Amino acid sequence: MIDTKHNTNHRPMxxxxxxxxxxxxxxxxxxxxxxxxxxxxxxxxIESGLGDPERYWTTLxxxxxxxxxxxxxxxxxxxxxxxxxxxxxxxxxxxxILHRLVKEADVFLTNLRKSTKVKLGIDYDSLxxxxxxxxxxxxxxxxxxxxxxxxxxxxxxxxxxxxxxYVTGASEPxxxxxGLLDQATAISASHAILTALLVRERSxxxxxIHVSLYGTGVWLMYLNIMLANVFxxxxxDISPNRYDHPPLRNFFRCKDEKWIMAAHHQDEKYWPLFxxxxxxxALLTDPRFKDRSGRxxxxxxxxxxxxxxxxxxxxxxxMEILLKEKLMVCRIQNFNEICDDPQARINDYMVDFKDxxxxxxxxxxxxxxxxxxxxxxxxxxxxxxxxTDLVMHQIGYTDQExxxxxxEGVIK
Length: 412
Hints:
By secondary structure, the protein is of the alpha/beta class. The chain folds into two domains: 19-223 and 347-407, Rossmann fold (3-Layer(aba) Sandwich); 242-336, formyl-coa transferase, domain 3 (2-Layer Sandwich). It is built from 18 helices and 13 strands. A six-stranded parallel beta sheet has the order 5-2-1-6-7-8, sandwiched between helices. It has a three-stranded antiparallel beta sheet with strand order 9-10-11, covered by helices on one side. Strand 3 (59-60) and strand 4 form a beta hairpin. Helix 7 (180-203) packs across helix 8. The longest helix has 24 residues, at 180-203.
C-alpha cells in the first residue's frame, strides 16, 4: 500500500515530461502554468525588455509587497516552478530560438492581446506550422470573439463584467480583493490545457484553446445567474444582512470576538439538536419557532436570541459543544489562522516552504491528493533570464553561440 502522507518524495509528479512554453504577464495566464508546474510540468517562461511587469508590482492598497530584491510577492506566486529566460522574439534570431522551443513544447501559453500575438508571430496560425501538435493556450479579458475581443483586462474588470461584484447582495458593487478571479481563471486555463493534452494523447490532434476572465467569472456565477434567470431576481435580492437569513444557516460572534459559522439545510432535523447544544430548550416549545415557516418569519428575533447566547462562550468552547451533537459548524478563520490550522496542516493544504527570498514560510499546498503521485510547489520565481544559458544548451546551442547571441542583445 502506498502511504499518501509520508515518504512522498519518491513518487513521480503527474506531469513529468510535459513541456510548457510561456510568453505571458501578470497572473491569470502565468498562474495557469504555475499550477501545471505544481503537477511537475517543465515550464519555461520567456521575458524581454524589463521583464514581466508583475515583477515590479509592489503595492496592493496599503500593503507593501516588496521583497528584498525589490520585486513584488505576487510575481513569485504567479511564476513558481518555472525556468526563466530572456529572449527578444522581435529579432529574427530570437524568433528562430522561439521556434526551436516551440518544436519541443507540448503547450504554448500566452495572455497577450489578440492583435499583439499576431504582430509578434505567437498566435496559433503562426506557431501551428512549427509544431502541428502544439496546444496553444490563450487567456484574455473577454473572450476570443466579439467587440471586446482585443481589449486588455485585469481582475477588477473581470469581476465587474461577470457580475461577481454583486455576489454579496450589497446595495452597491463590492470589490473582491486579492486576485480571486485571476486565480480562478488560472485554474480554468489549467483545466482546459489538461483536457487538450488528453485529447491529443488519444487523437494526436493539437489545438487552440481560449479562456477568459469574463467567461470564468460567469462560470463561477452559475448558480446566481440561474437563480436570477429562473426566478427573476435582482442583484440585491439575496441580502447580506444576517437577520434576513435562516438562523441555522448563519454566523455568530462569540465571547472572544471570534466568529462561528453554522450551515444546516435540513432545519427540522437539526433544530432540536441545536437548541439542546446551546441549552435553550424553551425555544422548542415557543409557538413562534415551532416549524420552519415560523422560524423564517421570526428569524430576526431568533438570531437576536442566538447572538446573546453565543456571546457567553468563546469560539473554541462553542465548537466543542456543537460538534459533540454532530452539528454542521466551523470556525470563521482569518488568513493567519489558516496557516496554523491543524486540519489544513494534516492535509497539506498549508505546507512549510523554504525560499531564497521569502526564507522559511508557509504556503498553500496543492489541494488534490494522489495515491500514486505527488504535487506541490518546487520553487518560486526565477530572476530575469536566470535560466537562459541552461535552456539554450538544452535546445542545442553551444557556449560560443550563446555568447554571440548575448552580444547581439537577442538573449541575456
